[in-house]
Write a structure and sequence with these properties.
Chain A: InterPro entries: BP-dep_ABC_trans_perm (IPR050901), MetI-like (IPR000515), MetI-like_sf (IPR035906). Chain A: It is a multi-pass membrane protein. Chain A: One of its GO terms (cellular component) is plasma membrane. Chain A: It holds the Pfam family BPD_transp_1. The structure holds three protein chains of three kinds. Chain A is mainly α. Helices cover about 70% and strands about 0% of the residues of chain A. Chain A has a two-stranded antiparallel sheet with strand order 1-2. In chain A, helix 6 crosses helix 8. Chain A is globular. The two termini of chain A are about 25 Å apart. Chain B is about 75% helix and about 0% strand. The longest helix of chain B has about 35 residues. Chain C is of the alpha/beta class. Chain C folds into two domains: about 190 residues, D-Maltodextrin-Binding Protein, domain 2 (3-Layer(aba) Sandwich), CATH 3.40.190; about 160 residues, D-Maltodextrin-Binding Protein, domain 2 (3-Layer(aba) Sandwich). Chain C is built from 13 helices and nine strands. The chains are: A mainly alpha, B mainly alpha, C alpha/beta.
Chain lengths: ~270, ~290, ~375
Amino acid sequence: MGIVQRRDVFGPLILIFLVFFIVLPVATVFLWAFAEQWFYPSVLPTKWGFRFWAQLVSRPEVWQAFLMSIKLSLTVTALSALICLPAAYAFARMDFPGRSGFMMSFLMANAFPRFALIVSIAVLFLTLDLVGTFQGVVIIQFLNTLLLMIWLPTAAFRAIPRETEEAARDVGASPLQVFWHITLPQAFPTIAAALLMTFVWTFYETEGAWLVGAPRIRTMPLLMMSMINNQLVVQYGAVLSVMLWVPSLVAIVLARRVIGGDAFAKGLGG
Amino acid sequence: MDAGNNRTGRIDFLAYGFIAIPVMAIVVFLFYPAALAMFGTLFHKRPDGGLAFDASSYIFFFTDPYSLANLMRTLWTTFVALVLIVAVNLPIALYMRFTRGWLASLIQGLALFPMFVPGIIICYALIRYLGPNGWLQSLLNAVGFTHYASPITTPWGPVIGLIWDGMPMTLLILISGLGTISDASIEAARDVGAGRLRILRSIILPQITHSILIVSALNFLGFFGQVLMPFMLGPTNPEMMGPFMLRTFVSVRDPLQAATQATITFLICSLAGLAYVRSLANRKEER
Amino acid sequence: MATHLRMDRRDFLRLSAAGAAFVAASGAQIGVSSAAEGTLDIFFNSDTNIIDFWTNVIKPGFEAANSGVTLNLVPGGGGSGVNALADRAMAAFQAKKDPQIDMLEATTPFYPAGSIEAGLWVNFETSGLSNQPKVNPVTVQSPFLLPYRGSQVVLMYNADQVKDVPATFPALVEWIKANPGKFTYARPDLGDSGACFIERALQEVTGQKPDLFQPENYTDAYANPMFEKLWPLLKEIQPALFNGGEYTSGNTASIQLLASGAISMTVAWSDMALQAMSQGVVPETTAVAQLQDLAFTGGFSGVVVPTVARNKDAAIKLADYIISADVQEKVVTDLGGFPSIGWDNLSKELQEKFAKVAPKSIPVFPGTWEPKLFEGWYRNVASNIKQ
């Protein structure tokens, strides 16, 4: 059925490219996590060891921070879905003056360099007494998810033929039923991709979490940053990354079942 | 942006309720402070307390060869990275759309993996891997190739970093876009004797133009204002706008000029957004 | 949000005390308690080994003398992290709120721009610190920054490749030209070790007279003729630098480039260099050396306190404590740093012991000159555009 099915040269070519472009840099981090010393021109670390692993795993705040990050990412993703999906549906299906303008505004909001806004943003959070609170970090991270969580689902809703919805409405389904049983399932692959990206990006977000949360709210990547930035010893960062890759790999395998395969057929575009 | 899916033509006021929260959030937290910052670049306080219009910071920027060289380098990096990221991801997306099996799964897993690598980590990894006396050079030496020239601290350093970072999102959006093409239409084309290139050009590309446009608009934003990659992987000079404005703000301690650079960056990124909306509107009309 | 990697000089004044183990840092309480009266939130721009020093020396000493006060020591996550906190302090100042920041370590009061003029930072000269008169005036960059430990910049090199290490600045320039591609320094705004190299070069072209550069004597008219002499020298060595004229993105990046063997020599903070050597980050043949004609300029690391801090009074007390003779002696013995108060305030024993090993003070270049110097460097040295 595929156009590259019979003589599959593209697959191996792409694989070779990915090995050099993705696998080897990632492997560099991986090897560093198990290296105590590594000097050029040695192809493998000059001294192996688990010293850095033992030191990290024994720190209780690593696990606290991990749980905090998971909690934050889940909350932000859920909140973002709750607020953005109806908005995306409105952009895709409803007619109102200023629609394109509002849609554009989400892109524009991300176009202004943040360094010039940080003080103003911090004033707002301080005035609302949100600094150092869980809610405060949720709100600032939520702001970062808007563009993606509105644009991608809007495109997905728009790609669904209106006829299927109207047919369901004709047989007496309520608008909510139509949305829940007809629209949402068809748009789901794209929405799942948006949710996955939102979750992962929120998990790794540091600037907002630090600006609003420090020192009361401590997340895993913040811990990582304090061990990576300006550090001579790169191993701590490497170990933390590798620790995070295990759950990530599980996520990506699960994602393949949702976004992969035939489900693609109901995606973006148009 | 659209010819409207709503056929009744009446205004749906409920829509404003649906979009109220996100719109208010960006207006309060982003647009209001951004507007203040932009206003401040054009209207300066006079000693007597009034406001005076003054565009001198813009005149300085656009007559300063140093600032202009930085702007040009930023545009170059953005466009090269945009072209390459589409050129790299489109074949991968096509492959994943039209192939089943373990190899496709493996490729998907690998290509999406950068999502789980934060920017700072990938910078370190790329330096260790591609950098001078890095792992790649060690590996090449081991097989007898000794003429390796590192792209780190050349203009290609940030380009490589940006492609790495932008790959998962680009790929996910392109794959979703390819989903709308039915296998039947491709089979039909093949039955009438169309070659692969022809199928690509006349059936696939027109269908995913929207996805390519979205990807370009989103990536343009991310690339143009990027700070980390040019800092860590790029040359000292010319600077990209991201590091340039931060240096102006932090080291030169010139907030006015930094805000001017930020406003110019914002306007250029807005143009990219506008171009996206226009091209989308044109496409709708053609249909 | 935009990240930036601005790295202050003060970031990098780290200890040389042998290979400070990471484990020891786990003693640092990293912000689990809630904001409360009597808990001082102190953010660190320095490495974990400085936090160790605070955990083991300053925290117990200060808490014992001030019952009911607890120090909450928080790693700041690099230059951009501490700048974000300074932004928050500024915002709190405008909103008249508690920033939940009582002290920032190893940063400057110059960020965000205009914060000094606005009155964001505590002026240590007028806040009645009992130890303030002892502070060595040459270490003071600004009344709003209280210096408490100093460090010097040295040549760091691989002795395998550099048999004859240059002892004077002209010899260094000769060495650079004779060994193309084997030396480089950090961009001055990103890594102060690079700034110190440029400042030493400026002192060289103006006749080795550090007194020419005073905190309050910067004017364009006075400085520009000197800068005009500096640019040709730096431009001249540029083609002989790493990769045909490239600079590193920071102090750490310089050392890592040296560790990879891509270059044979660079400039580095002495404490970072010694730490890298003791932790095995660089090859065993790595060594350090100081110029003998006129040492590289060094720098002092200090603390700032926001005027809106909830525990401002306790924070000022703490500031007074860290420049007390007791703590300053520990800076010398435990950190291997330089005291910010005059040596004559320290114990006789210590003075005698260190008189032979350490210079009385380290040369400092005034921070007020740096914005123009660095901007000029970008435009006249790094760039090839004719101005």
